[in-house]
Amino acid sequence: MSLSTKNILFYLLLLGVVTWACVNPIKDFVQIDATSFTTIEADISDDPELSKVRLTSSSNRLQSQLALPISKAIVTVIDQNGTQTVFTEGTPLGTYYPPKGFLGKVGSTYKLNVKMLTGQIYESSAETMKAVPEIENAITRFETFDQYDKVDVRRAGFTVYLDFKDLPTEGDYYLWNWKHYEKIGLCATCTDGGKYDFKKLDCVQPKFPTDAILNYMCDGNCWDITTNNDLNVFSDVLTNGQRVVGRQVARIPFDNWTPYYFRLEQRSITKNAFAFYQSLISQVQSSGSLFDVPAETRFSLNIKSLTKPTERVLGIFNVFAVRKKIFIIDRRKDIPAGELPIISIIPGETYACPPGSVGCQDKVPCIESPTRTKITPEGWVF
Amino acid sequence: MIKLLPRVFCLGLLFALSHQSIAQTTSLPAIFGKVIDASTGEPLKGADISVDFKKSGVSTDTTGSFRVYVPYGEWVIKVSYVGYNPYRTKIYVKANTELNVELNNVTKQLEEVIVSSAATKRDIQTPSLGVTVLSLKGIKKLPTMMGEVDVIRSLQSLPGVSSVGEGANGLNIRGSNVDQNLIYIDDTPIFNPTHMFGLFSVFASDAIRDLELYKGGVPSRFGGRTASVLDIKMIEPNTDKFKMQGGIGLVSNRVMAEIPIIKEKLAVLVAGRLSVNDFMFKWFAPDYLKNLRANFSDVATKIYYRPNTKNTISLSTYLSHDYYRVDSLFSIENVVAKQTSFNYGHKNVAIHWNHYFSPKLNMMVSGSLTDYSTKTFAPDTVNTIDLNSSILYRNLTASFDYQPRDNHKMNFGITGTRYDIDPGNLNEGVVSRVATVKLPLEQSYELGLFADDEWTISPKFTLQAGLRYSQYYRMGAGTINEYVPGQVPSLSSIVKKTSYSDGEIMASYGGLEPRLTMKYSLAENTTMKFGYNRQQQFFQLLSNNTTPLPTSRWKTADTFIKPQQSDFLSLGLFKTFNENVYEASIETYYRDVRNTLDFVSGANLQLNPNIETQLITGKSKAYGMELMMQKKKGEVSGWVSYTYARAFNQMIGDYPEVQAINGGDWFATNYDKPHTFNMMLNIQPTTHHSFSFTFAYNTGRPFSSPSGSYEIGGKKFPVFAARNNDRVRDYHRLDFSWTINNPSMRKQRWEGSWVFTIYNLYGRQNPYSVFFKSTKNGLRAYELSVFAAPFISLTYNFKFL
C-alpha cells in the first residue's frame, strides 16, 4: 500500500485513521484499447542546445519503451519574415536538429511544417517566443515529511523555493526544470556473479548466478544526472507583474553532507504549451483524488494534419525562451540536531586487476545517456 | 425402521412431558398460561411453545391454554404463532409458574422498515409513481458509517439511487447528474448536501420527520430540476410536552429539543450537531497532521404557532457550516499558498402559513430563502487569497388544496424565485500580490404556475394529471459577448459586447411541463402504474470533477446556456401479499435530457468570466429496470432489490470537429453502473435489541483507460483516446449494526441506547477510481479505495421524554 498523492493523504488524515483510504498499484493492468498515434514534439528555443523536433509513432502499450522513430521526414520551421530553416535528422533516429547557429529570438513567431515520407503533411499554428525573466533567487529550506519513516530518504530533505519578478506583460506562462549532477567513482555494477565485458560494454551473467556483486571504477570523470520527475507550470493570470515568491520548484534529498549541484531552468512558454502541460499534470500528477477531472489527452492542440484534418496528432509545438542558474546547495547548513543524512552504501566489492596481470582492464568507460555524462557540467567547482 | 426409532422415541418423550395425566405422576414443575391476540383478546389455538430454543411439541389448545413441564432452573421460553411476532422470556422455575402471553399480529403492526412507512398501503395507493416515503425511525436502523445517521447514504440502498462512489458528493437518481435533483428541507433548497467534501450528509437527522423521494412522477408543484425531488420535512415540535434527544458519536455530537411555549399553541424545535473531528486529529493523527482542521456543524430550528384551529404558522431555519484547513490542497491554481482554508455553508429560512378555509379548501403561503456561500482563503502569506462565491435564492409560493368532490383532489398555485449569484470574487478589498478578480453578478427570475388533479375515475382507476408552466428571465445588469459566427467561441473570437442595464431582460425561456400518472388495479393487491413527465432546469452546476467540490460554480441559464429539458416515462407493477406484509414491485423507466453540459478538455471554470468558451452542449439518456421485494413487518424485515440501469451522454457541441467528446459517440457517464443488488435485513427479536445487515453490490463505474503511451520531454505519459471506455472492479460491501435500546430495561424518562456498527465488515478494498502516475520507472496504474478497511464505531443516543 503506497500513499502517494497528497489528496489521498488528505482523506486519510481527514478521518484520522491511517488504514482507511488506500492506493494500490494494479499489477496486471490490461488495456482494452491499443492504438498508435503520430507524435510530434517540437522545441524552438533561444538556447542553441534545446531546439529540436522529434517524430515518433506512439507506443500502443502503457509499459512498453517502444516509440517507433519516424525517419526521413522533411522538417521546416518558418519565422514571421518567411525565413525557412530546415531541420535535419540526426541521432537518435527520428530526431531532427536545426543547422548550427540557429537561435530562436524572443518576439519572433514560428511555424512548424512536417512532411512525412508517406506524404502526410502536418502544420503547427504560429507561436511567438515570449521573453523570460531572470531567476533571481532560490531559497533552500530543510524540511521533513513525517509521513515517511525515519529511514526513508523521502522524509528529510531540502525544499527549493524560487523568487522571480513576473514580466509586466499579461499572459506569461512559466515552466521549470532542474538538473542535478552527481560525480561518481563507480561506473558499473554487475550483480548475480556477473562480470563486465569490455567489448560489449555491459555486464555478462554467468551460467549459474551467485550472490557476488562486483563494482567497476570509472576510467575518467563521470557524472550521474538526476532531473525533475514532475511537471511544474505557472500562469501569471492572477499575479501579473508581481514578484512571485515561494514557488516550490524542487525537493533535494538529504542523502549526504556534500554540496549539491543544482541547475535550475526557467522557461517562458506559450499559452498553448501551458494548456498542454496542464492537461498532462491533471492526468498523471494531480490524479488519484476524489475530484479528478476527466483523463483526456489533448490531441492536435497546435499541430494539425493538413492531409487528413480528422487525424489525432499527439504532441506540442513548444516555443520558449529559457534562463538557467546554477546553485550549489550547502547541505550542512541549518540542520536541526539529531538529523543525519541517509547515505546509501553500494554493496559488493570493487573489482581490481590482480597485481602484475597483463592486459587486464579494471576501469570501465562512462557511457553517455540521458542519466550519465562525462562532460564536465557548466559551473562545476568541486 | 431403525431410522425411525429415534424420532418415535423423541415424540414419545415429548408426549410424556406434555401429557397431563402422566405429568401428575412426575414431580417436575409446570409453566402454564394462556396465549391471546394482543389486539382482539381472542385465544390463539396451536401456538408453539419452545423451551431453551428447542421445540417442546407443546402447543396451545382451543382456549389458548398450554402447560409445559420443565426441570427446576432457568429456562428461555418462546411462544410463536404463524403471522404473529414471537414472544421470548426467561423464567426461573422454582414452582409451577403462570405465563400469560399476548402476541401481536404482524399484519396489524406498524411498519418499521424505512421505505414507505407513512401508511401501510401508501406506496401503491397514491397515484404518484416512483414515490418513496422514508421514515427517519427506519433510517436509523440501517448500519451507519462512523456512527453518523446519514440520509444520503441510506437512500443509496434503494433501487435507482446511487452515487459515483464512496465519499462522493450528491446523488445520482435514475441516471441523473447530481445537480438534476432538487433537494428541499422544509421547502428551502440545498445546493450542497454533504459535509466534509462528501463524507456525511448535511441533514441533522434528529430534526427530520420524513423524506419523500420522487424519482418518477414528480407533482407539478415541484419544478426547476430535470430528474428527481428529495423533499425533507422537519419535525413539527410537540406543543404539549417537552422532549429531548441526542447522541454522542465518533464524528459528531447532537442534541434536539422540542419545547412547548404556550400549550397547544406555540412550540419550538432546536436541533444541532457539532463535529468533533479536531479531537480525532489531535489524539489519533500523526504529528504532521495535527495542524489539519476539519469541522462541521448544523443547526435546525422550527417555531410552530397555531393561534386557532384554522391557522398554523411555522418558521424554519437551517444553518450548516463547514471549515477546513489543509496544506496546499484544492487551492486556487496559479497561486503560491502553503496552507488553504475553506468555509462553506447554507443559511436557509422558510416561513409557512397554512389557512383552512373549509374542509374542502386550504391554502399554504410560504416565503423561503437560501444563502449558500463558499470562501477559500489563505491569509497568512504575501500571496493572500480571499475568494468568495454565493447563491442567494428567494422564493414566494402560494398553493391551494381543493377537494370539490370525493373523487377529485386538486393542488394548484403560483411560485416565483429570484436567484442572485455571485460566481466568484477574489481579493476584493484585500491587500495582496494576487490580483483582484470580480466576476459579474448574475440575477434571474424563475416563475411557475402549476395545477394537479388527482381524479379517482373508478375504484380501479386513478389518474393524476398536472401541468406546470415555467418562465425564466435572465436579468441585467450584465454583458453578452458576441463571437465570430461559425467559429468556436474563444477569447480571441469576441466581436462585440452588448451591455444590459439593471432590470433589463438579457435572455428568457419558457415552456409547459405536463405531468401525468395513472394507476390501474389489475386485481385487489395488484396495481399497475404509468407515469410521464417533462421538466425544465434553468440552474445548473458547472463541474468537471468526478464529484463536485463544495466550491463548484452554479450558473443560471443565459444566451449561451440553454435550459435543460427532460422527458421521463415509467411503468411499474406493484403487488402486495399476505395482508401487506410482503410487497413486490417492478418498475421500468426511460429518461431523455436535452441541453446537458460537458466541458472542453482542460476547462477553466473558476473565475472565468466567459464561461461559454469552456462548455460543450449535448444530450443524456438513461433507462433501467428496478425489482424490489420487501418484507415490511415482523421480527425479520427488510428488502432485496436488483436494478439494471444505464446512463449515457452524447456531447457533440455546436462545433463537433473540435468539441465532440469521444468522437461524438454516446459514452457511459461516471455513474453508469449496470447491475446493482442491494439487501437489507433487520432482525428485532426483542424491543431491546435489533440487528441489521446491509449488503450492496454494483458493477464498477467507468473510467478512461489509456490506448498506449507517448513521450514528452523524455517522460512518458498515457494516451487517453476515449472517455470512460473501461470499468473499475465491482463494488460490494456488507455492514452490520447492533442497537441496544434502553439497556437498563427500566421505564424512565431518560432512555439511552447504544449503536454498535461495523461498516465494510469484510474489509473489501472497493475501488473508487483507477488512475495513472508517471514514476521514475514509467507509467503505472493505481486503484484508489476510500474506505478500504472495516470501520467500527459506537454511538450513544438518548431520549428524554
Explain what you see.
- The complex is a heterodimer of chains A (382) and B (801).
- With 382 residues, chain A is mostly beta strands.
- Chain A is built from two helices and 26 strands.
- In chain A, the strands form four sheets. Chain A has a 16-stranded mixed sheet that branches. In chain A, strands 14, 17, 24 and 25 form a four-stranded mixed sheet that branches.
- Chain B has 801 residues and is mainly beta.
- Chain B starts with a helix and ends with a strand.
- Classes of the chains: A mainly beta (382), B mainly beta (801).
- Chains A and B meet through helix 1, strand 1, strand 20, helix 2 and strand 23 of A and helix 6, strand 44, strand 45, strand 49 and strand 50 of B.
Stretches with pLDDT under 50, minimum 5 residues of chain B: 1-25, 116-127
What is the CA–CA distance across the termini of chain B?
63 Å
The quaternary organization reads as heterodimer
In terms of DSSP E residues, the strand content of chain B is: over 45%
Largest Cβ-defined interface? A-B, 91 and 94 residues
- How large, in whole angstroms, is the Cα Rg of chain B? 30 Å
SSE arrangement of chain A, N to C: HEEEEEEEEEEEEEEEEEEEEEHEEEEE
What is the average of the pLDDT values of chain A? 89
Structural class of chain B: mainly beta
Task: State the share of residues found in helices of chain B, binned by percent.
Answer: under 10%
Task: Tell how many strands the DSSP assignment of chain A holds.
Answer: 26
In DSSP terms (H or I, runs of 4 or more residues), the helix count of chain B works out at 7
What composes the largest sheet of chain A? 16 strands, mixed
Enter the CATH topology name of the largest domain in chain B.
Maltoporin, Chain A
CATH-scheme architecture of the largest domain in chain B: Beta Barrel
CATH class of the largest domain in chain B: Mainly Beta
